[in-house]
Automatic annotation (TrEMBL):
Residues 148-193, 239-309 are annotated as: Disordered. It comes from Parnassius apollo (Apollo butterfly). One of its GO terms (molecular function) is histone binding. Pfam families: LRR_9. Residues 149-161, 255-274 have a biased composition (Acidic residues). GO terms for cellular component: nucleus. Residues 275-284 have a biased composition (Basic and acidic residues). Keywords: Leucine-rich repeat, Repeat. Residues 285-295 have a biased composition (Polar residues). This is Acidic leucine-rich nuclear phosphoprotein 32 family member A. Belongs to the ANP32 family. Implicated in a number of cellular processes, including proliferation, differentiation, caspase-dependent and caspase-independent apoptosis, suppression of transformation (tumor suppressor), inhibition of protein phosphatase 2A, regulation of mRNA trafficking and stability, and inhibition of acetyltransferases as part of the INHAT (inhibitor of histone acetyltransferases) complex.
Length: 309
């Protein structure tokens, strides 16, 4: 148990600890807990193997103690240093008689006591006798005197119940709620100029409505501006799309077809020249080369040379 206590401290000072869980730590008696835990409010020692409460420290602010599923049969008087105790769970222990419970009489604030699964519960009129032995009890084994089951908020609350002796007096904060109470007489005695008039109230309501209308109008204008912006963006997008389309390969393909058409025409002209159709250029070329026929001047000069011979 001592090692478990050191582990749960996590380097803190014992006086700073308000809740400590030592369940299943396995120890027959209390070891490692000291009176230094002056601010400890909740302590859990369930299923720890305890057979005795000897050496239980003085814990002035402890209000909830869990000791279920141990082997405690007596020695509840060692809890005398926990005067603020309101919740005590002793279920699953070895308590056999009412005499063992007598030390609990000094706990004037004890409201919830659990003795379930103890032999003492087999005593005749057990519940009536325990309630008589501890008049401060409100719930025994989770039920009140009329056998009505306790609600979680009552039987297992997260703090001490209001009993006039609330602990931690130095931590209590006194709050005066007097100024918050509305007194009709004091309201009627207020000076006339400090009372809210009907006209002022109407002005206030009108101002709120005007402000709400302004906000709604502003939001509608913003929506319209966004729609106009979307339209203008779509127009720009369409223009860009048309420009890209005009420069696309489709138009280049059309120009290419026109060039092919011109080339075909030129090839047709060449074929006509080859077939002997009238082509002045081709005739001039042939005459200039002098291959097909000689000129008339050449024939006359040749005839004169023959006559001289």
């Amino acid at each position: 148990m001592e090692k478990r206590v050191v582990l749960e401290l996590r380097g803190r000072n014992p006086s700073q600890v308000k809740e400590l869980n030592l369940d299943n730590c396995r120890s027959t008696n209390i070891v490692g807990l000291t009176d230094e835990y002056t601010n400890l409010e909740i302590l859990s020692l369930n299923n720890a193997g305890l057979t005795s409460l000897k050496g239980f420290p003085t814990l002035p602010k402890l209000w909830k103690l869990e000791l279920s599923d141990n082997r405690i049969s007596n020695g509840l008087n060692f809890l005398h240093g926990c005067k603020k105790l309101t919740h005590l769970n002793l279920s699953g222990n070895k308590i056999k008689d009412l005499e063992t419970l007598k030390p609990l009489e000094e706990f004037e604030n004890l409201k919830n006591l659990d003795l379930f699964n103890n032999e003492v519960t087999n005593i005749e009129d057990y519940r009536t006798k325990v309630f008589a032995l501890h008049p401060s009890l409100k719930y025994l084994d989770g039920f009140d005197k009329e056998d009505r089951e306790a609600e979680d908020s009552d039987a297992y609350s997260d703090g001490p119940e209001e009993n006039g002796n609330n602990d931690s007096e130095e931590d209590d904060v006194d709050i005066d709620f007097g100024p918050l109470v509305i007194d009709d007489d004091s309201l009627s005695q207020r000076p006339q100029d400090t009372k809210p008039s009907l006209l002022m109230s109407l002005y206030t309501v009108y101002g709120l409505l005007f402000h709400m209308g302004y906000l709604i109008k502003k939001s509608e204008d913003e929506v319209e501006e966004e729609e106009d912006e979307d339209l203008s963006l779509s127009e720009v997008y369409n223009e860009n799309l048309e420009e890209e389309s005009s420069a696309s390969p489709l138009y280049e393909a059309e120009g290419y077809l026109d060039e092919e058409y011109d080339l075909d025409d030129e090839e047709g002209d060449e074929e006509n020249d080859a077939n002997g159709e009238h082509n002045p250029k081709s005739q001039d070329v042939e005459n200039a080369s002098g291959n097909p026929q000689e000129s008339t001047r050449g024939k006359k000069r040749k005839h004169e040379d023959d006559d001289e011979n």
